[in-house]
Amino acid sequence: MGGVLVVHALHSPGRGVLLWAEDGDRSARSSRTSVRTARPHPFAVPSDELAAVHPGRNASATVLLPSYPSGPQDSPGLVRATARARTRSTPSLTPWTVPAVLVDSSELTDPSPDVRYGAGFLHLAELRRFAEELAARGRVLPVLTTQAGRPTARWRPVVQGLDAVARADLVRRLPPVARSEQRRPGDVSGADPGELVDAALLRFTDAAVRERLGRSPTMPVPPPARPDTTASLLHALSGPDPRIPAGDGVGPLRSALAEWDGVGREEPGAGTALFRLAEVSTLHDPADPGPDLEDQTGDGTRWELQFALQSTEDPSLQFDAGDVWDGMAEDLVAGAQDVLLAELGRAAEALPGLVPALRRARPEYLELDIDGAHRFLTRDAGALLAAGFGVALPRGWDGTRALGLRLSSSATPAPGAVTRGGLGRDELAQFRWTLAVGDDELGEEEISALVAAKAPLVRLRGRWVAVDADALAKGLDFLRRSAGRAPTVHDVLAAARGDVDAPLPVTGVQARGRLGELLAGTVDRELEPLPDPPGFTATLRPYQERGLAWLAFLSSLGLGACLADDMGLGKTVQLLALEAHDRGGADPAAAPTLIVCPMSMVGTWQREAERFAPALRVHAHHGASRPRGDALHSRLGEADLVVTTYATATRDAEDLRQWRFHRLVLDEAQMIKNSAAAASRTMRSFDAAHRIALTGTPMENRLAELWSVMDFLNPGILGVPEVFRQKFSVPIERHGDAGSARTLRRITRPYLLRRVKTDPEVIDDLPAKIEMVADHRLTREQASLYRTVVDDMMEKIEGSDGIERRGNVLAAMSKLKQICNHPAQLLHDGSPIHRAGGRHRSGKVERLEEILEGVLAAGDKALLFTQYTEFAGMLRPHLSARFDTEVLYLHGGTPKKRRDEMVARFQAPDGPSVFVLSLKAGGTGLTLTAANHVIHLDRWWNPAVEDQATDRAFRIGQKRSVQVRKFVCPGTVEERIDTLIASKRSLSDMVVTDGEDWLTSLSTAELREVFALGSDAVADPENDDTGDEGDGDE
Amino acid sequence: MSDRPFWAHEDFTGGRPIRVEGGGIKIHSTKGAVARQWWSSRFLAVLEQQGIGGRLSRGKNYARSGQIVSLDFDAGAAVALVQGTRPAPYRVRIGMRVWDKQEWARIEQALAADAWYAAALLAGTVPPEIEELLGGLGLSLFPAGGSDLSLDCSCPDRTVPCKHLAAVFYLIAEQFDSDPFVLLELRGREKDTLLTRVREERDRAAGASGSGPAALGDLIDTFWETPEAGPPTPRPPDTEPDAVLDQVPEPSMRGLTDALRPIYRALADPEQ
What region holds the SWIM-type domain (chain B) (predicted)? Predict the structure, then answer.
């Protein structure tokens, strides 16, 4: 065999897929000359030879082929070793018999590389794939037919919607050779393409379904054990044998399935016209040097309004008018041509300009000039839509892309333009307004092109934009007026929130450099760290350095700043560093900074200032003896930091308003969440060059609080409350509107810096264990008890010696510690933890509640250590009730089994969050890494013991940083002993070895000093001793 | 014609017509002009040119009060029964000259060549240019006068048109308002036939074979080739594998659809 076979395929209804082939090695000449009856095809391949390539049953077929008197035409794929004699005669259709092979349809999808295939084969293969796709998508239904007298279950395709379009295309593309089988002698018209395709599709669909099911492990459905028609049907549909045993049930089954015969054979539906504005090529020959007269767009294109018909039931079915006139839509839209005509006629009533395009036999489109295209986009399209027609606009057209203004910096500022921490004049000088479309700023050339453009439709960077000449003129005028006037930082920030008086909408603010970073909320990461503030003793963590630089940067711009770092990340330290920076460098003689905080934080501020910025003069302005009037003024004149409470500041507002402070700092700024409350109004009324809010609560989700704090920091920034409510609160809180939330974030982010403990960059910066002191004050009850015990015990100590004195010292120590915990612990009277009316009897418990509130709100877990089982026993039910949560309690008497169980429950993710442990029982051996907070309620002054307890949480398995708090009440033994140990190096060694025993070696005078109650131990007597809620309108 | 003296006629005595039982066909216009569209007005103008004075308004009142019992369009004529003063309704016929085959063929050709006419007619309007088109073919859409129009009524009124004819004129004119094809029907072509002919003419002019696929013998030049592919068909939306079972009507054999569902699921994902 020398030549390559050309294999042809056709579907023979009733028989199946027939293959026959030409062989170029065989003579082209027919030995017979009859024209009427079919003669054997001279160069067709014998069945056996073809079956070697595509196995099947031998068959034969009569095919009508273009032929010459000498013999049939070669198909185009046939290559002959010796060329055929040329013929001048025109071919005519003649029947030939060809040996054929009847093959399984799967042969169509398994072509051989050794032969060529004719168009009929490829088309049938495509039909087969279409059938497979229908089967895979389940677009099939069972039918019950009768074959050879037996009921037979078959699958038929369900061809609807887009599948019908695909089928119509397959019918249209059926090559004539596929229709060539002559079914009856003398018939030369060829098989009907639609019928042929449908018959093949029916056969292929059944085969494709069975083939797919054959791959399924759950198929076929087993044959029924007892006669059951439905089960027999399922078996016949899912297995290789389609036959169903005849029986009583077949009749009803047949009629039941017949009810589905109409599915997929519905009458064509209704249609509507679709008008498509399209840019089409002018088809101007590029080789032609002459001008392209039709070019409307400058890109060798022109505008057309194309007509199409759209199925009402399935709008994805669309037919170009040309196809409708070709009759291709008739199967899907009833009377498609007349429907299109009627629609066009109706559209012409809405749009008389269409009439000229209709004055031809087969209207397909309306030619538009560029004004027409613009008119269509801006007006006519709407009219057609309103009249119920479909309209499709060109890609890239977006009616929202209108001309706008954009504020941007034209270039990256030169290095040095940025002053340290601040913004240079130069950077702002870079700013200018530009015209923009969407996000695209227009260059000079584009603007002149716009001005020069006569057409209202201009292509900018590949997209079409409608240009309103009036808006353009106004925009240019605005540009001229604003030229040469560098905007201020406030201008830029206001423009960024769209708060600007301009003739066109502001589409965006594009700022580079520091300002861009500020707008993007990333400036803290880019600022260079400040030099260590003079006289500042603490070493800032890298994230704290960034916080300091950020605060200094906003301060230099006069922008109010909200530092909203997580609890425990050191907001106080950052603020103190900022103050040290200001006063040690730029402005040593600055006015004092007013720090307003809750009562419980006053001591912390004082202590931390003393510790980290000892050069700063601190005036704690609270208590009954605080100076007023002139005394206050002279006191303030000598202070750097004035620390006061919300309540005191509100009360002394008159005096404080006389001052212009260097800075006004609100600690725990959520205190002013109610913007109408007296404290909030008072804070806003104070005069300060700069304002800072410190808060640990994420404000993004508490919009009223966010408004209040932001409005305090930068008055007016979020508008008046009513508008804010309407624009943000309602859409975000009620409707969860992400767009509004994004806008709000964009507006606030320049003024807000929030780092959370889980931020990777914070974690990297963090020590794994953060130790801090938890401050608290004694209540008056505690204080009076304390004084009584000190007097009583000092008397006893003075009157005893030796072992007795030692015992008295330790007893005194113990009693005072118990008082600091809770009065009831000393009294052993089982009295309630609160006074009547819910007032606290213990400042420590109150502070503990505050801390736990934050811990639980963050979803964290805490370990609470105490030496006193009695205190633990009091706390557990109280905390459990207070926080409505289970509180675990482990003490020396807890059996091992119970202990293990508690540990396991605490470690479980959804287990209890608070675990109270006695220091002795819980200090060793347990792993409680689920906790990332450790609170030492009372002190043992033995770091080893305390660390051991802390290590229950801070050990292998802990993935977060651990915050360790030790309770210290200023002015009591708790603080005194802390200080004593820190100041006397020798003591610390004793502590390590002896616990509290070293106390007994102190002299009575020394003991008196240690035990004496300091004035700072008691809560501001003028305020109620539940702490300082600040609102003042209770 | 009656043998009674002229003054005995109801037209002169002003006798009231008998009401049509159950109400006859009424025109919708309750006062003023009947025809709203220019082509209907033109049709009525033919009537009004006849100068029949008071019969016009009486005819209009007949049409408004529902004296017309029935109206049928026949090839080239409108035939109506109008209830007058006598018990038996009068038979009214308005006939127009029917255009012959050749004339219609020319019209169909013209309509196929310029889609605007058919588009407008299908949208319910008659483009004024159609008069020009027909004029070019030597035809007139509206009856040119008495010779183009035959009017008959079985009433005793000797004057033509009588009020019964006038009533039917008004009714026809109102039908023209909403369906201009009625106008063409009076010239001998039903709407469906006309549209089919125009469609065939359009196909023929475009060189298409018209109905049915091309005979194989006409395709010898492209016998071995596959016609060029059209634009790709968009992918049908993804649906549940057994979505078709939710689409079929509930079969008379209960439980059949649910019994088939596992097969459809296996079909969608046979490897599972």
Answer: 138-173
Indicate whether A994 pLDDT > 70. no
| B241 and A138 Cβ atoms separated by less than 8 Å | yes
Do B31 and B83 belong together in one domain? yes
Structural domain range at position B79: 1-99+143-188
CB pairs under 8 A between A and B: 218
**Those residues with Cβ within 8 angstroms of residue A747's Cβ, 6 or more apart along the chain or in another chain:** A496, A497, A717, A718
- Amino acid identity, residue A696? G
State pLDDT tens for residues A902-913: 888 998 888 999
| Amino acid residing at A118 | G
Torsions phi, psi of A274, nearest 5? -120, 130
Are residues B158 and B268 part of one domain? Answer: no
Kindly state whether B195 is in contact with chain A, defined as any CB-CB distance less than 8 angstroms: yes
DSSP string, A541-591: PHHHHHHHHHHHHHHHTT--EEE-PPTTS-HHHHHHHHHHHIIIII-TTPP
Same domain, B209 and B86: no
| Contact call for A349 and B125, based on CB within 8 A | yes
Task: Look at chain B and report how many structural domains it folds into.
Answer: 3
A341 touches chain B (CB under 8 A): yes
- DSSP states along A909-931: TTS-SEEEEEHHHHSSS---TT-
Minimal Cα–Cα distance from B204 to chain A, Å? 11
Instruction: State whether B224 and A118 contact (CB < 8 Å).
Output: yes
pTM above 0.80, yes or no: no
In tens, the pLDDT along A805-848 reads 888 888 888 889 999 999 988 888 878 888 877 788 899 999 99
| Minimal Cβ distance to A138: which of B114, B124, B268 | B268
- Separation between Cα atoms, residue B212 and residue A404, nearest integer Å: 59
The H or E element that residue A760 is part of is helix A760-765
Q: Is A567 on the interface with B (CB under 8 A)?
A: no
* Distance of residue A890 Cα from the nearest chain B Cα, in angstroms: 54
Q: Is B162 contained in some domain? A: yes
Interface of B with A in 11-70 (CB under 8 A): none
Mutation target vs A (from B130, B261, B267, B272; most A CBs, 10 A cutoff): B267
Q: How far apart are CA A618 and CA A641, in angstroms?
A: 5
Question: Given CA atoms B178, B184, B190, B193 in this order, what sign does their dihedral have?
Answer: negative
Q: Are residues B9 and B132 in the same domain?
A: no
Q: Letter for the amino acid at A864?
A: L
* B166 and B256 inside one domain: no
Scanning A101-140 for CB atoms below 8 A from B yields: 118-119, 122-123, 135-140
| Cβ neighbours of B222 in A, within 8 Å | 175-176
Q: Per the CB < 8 Å rule, is B248 touching A263? A: yes
The helix, strand and coil proportions of chain A, stated in percent and rounded to the nearest 5, come to 40, 20, 40
- Whether residue A474 has pLDDT greater than 90: no
**Interior/surface letters B79-98, b for 16+ CB within 10 angstroms, e for the rest:** bbbbbbbeeebbebbbbbbe
User: How confident is the model over A152-191, as pLDDT tens digits?
Assistant: 999 999 887 778 778 888 888 899 999 999 888 878 788 8
